[in-house]
Automatic annotation (TrEMBL):
The keyword Transmembrane applies. It holds the Pfam family adh_short. This is Oxidoreductase. Keywords: Membrane, Oxidoreductase, Transmembrane, Transmembrane helix. Signal peptide: none annotated. GO terms for molecular function: oxidoreductase activity. Belongs to the short-chain dehydrogenases/reductases (SDR) family. The keyword Transmembrane applies. It comes from Cercophora scortea. The chain crosses the membrane at residues 20-39. It comes from the Eukaryota.
Length: 308
């Protein structure tokens, strides 16, 4: 790509002195990579969520071994359980009155059919519903931070895989509480549906909460554990369309790191950016469907009502 990580950090991410950053899924993959890089810019506090405390402690040790003095905290959070997500949010709010960056990074991809503990199709539940609850719980502190300090942002990860979202629907609302075990591409279409939801929800956040900057990013294709753990069939689906486009693993998180540091007057809230910082040209008809986005928002609000 013509540049290295030190250049990306120096060019795109200013010092984060005094700032508080929360990264979901920060114990591995892209989230861990982002945590390691952002810690070099010295935020006051960095929270990483996940289920594996041993993995979290490994990342925390690496951050400190690299010389960062950032206070790093592991926040246990199982995104298959809304009770766990609520607990993580409540724990954060009990400790902090400031949040500058919420990076909605955690996710699953092309996993076998199944349901979350709350009964949602597992990819939609983990990738969208859990993040929506966390975002809604933390929006007041994000809004307060934006008002006080002039900037707060949500960085949410989507994927160009949304091109595979169910034709004729985009999102099949009536069956989100089933395993949806039917489409030809199966796990990838369920994944695509959830990634479309991430994008649409980000666009609605930008419209409804303009005080907070929402940046939707496609990280690009890299051989993280999400890809490495796929079946051979699903690996073929990922690799064949992306021959010559795969990023080295260490570059997979660069776009979301860029989104943390880019001046807010250089981006349009609610829009999607591809690596690194390039406005997407990959929108489908569903991505720009305002009625679908509004329906997703209303559906999500109803589902989260008991947890807010």
């Amino acid at each position: 790509m013509g540049y290295n990580v030190d250049f990306v950090l120096e060019r795109d991410v200013p010092e984060l002195t005094g700032k508080v950053v929360l990264i979901t899924g920060g114990t591995g993959g892209l989230g861990a990579g982002a945590a390691l890089l952002l810690a070099k810019r010295n935020p006051a506090k960095l929270y990483i969520t996940g289920r594996n405390e041993a993995a979290a402690q490994k990342i925390i040790k690496q951050i400190h071994d690299d010389g960062s003095e950032t206070e790093v905290t592991f926040l246990p959070c199982d995104q298959t359980s809304l009770a766990s997500v609520k607990q993580a949010a409540d724990t954060f709010l009990a400790r902090e009155s400031r949040l500058d960056v919420l990076m909605a990074n955690a996710g699953v991809m092309a996993v076998p059919p199944g349901l979350t503990k709350d009964g949602y199709e597992v990819q939609f539940g983990v990738n969208h519903v859990a993040h929506a609850l966390l975002i809604r719980k933390l929006l007041p502190v994000l809004d307060k931070t934006a008002t006080t300090y002039g900037d707060a942002r949500i960085v949410t990860l989507t994927s160009l895989a949304f091109i595979l979202a169910p034709r004729g629907h985009g999102i099949v609302f009536d069956e989100l509480r089933t395993p949806q075990n039917y489409w030809f591409l199966g796990g990838f279409q369920r994944y695509a549906q959830s990634k479309l939801a991430n994008l649409l929800y980000g666009r609605e956040l930008a419209r409804r909460y303009p005080n907070v900057t929402t940046i939707v990013i496609h990280p690009g294709e890299s051989n993280t554990s999400l890809v490495g753990n796929l079946s051979w069939y699903h690996k073929i689906v990922v690799f064949l369309p992306n021959i010559g486009r795969f990023l080295p693993v260490e570059q997979g998180c660069w776009n979301q790191v860029w989104a943390v540091g880019v001046p807010k007057d250089k981006v349009i809230s609610g829009e999607m950016y591809e690596p690194i910082g390039a406005p997407t040209k990959g929108y489908t008809q569903y991505c720009l469907d305002e009625k679908l986005a509004a329906r997703l928002w209303d559906w999500t609000e109803e589902e989260l009502k008991a947890w807010l």
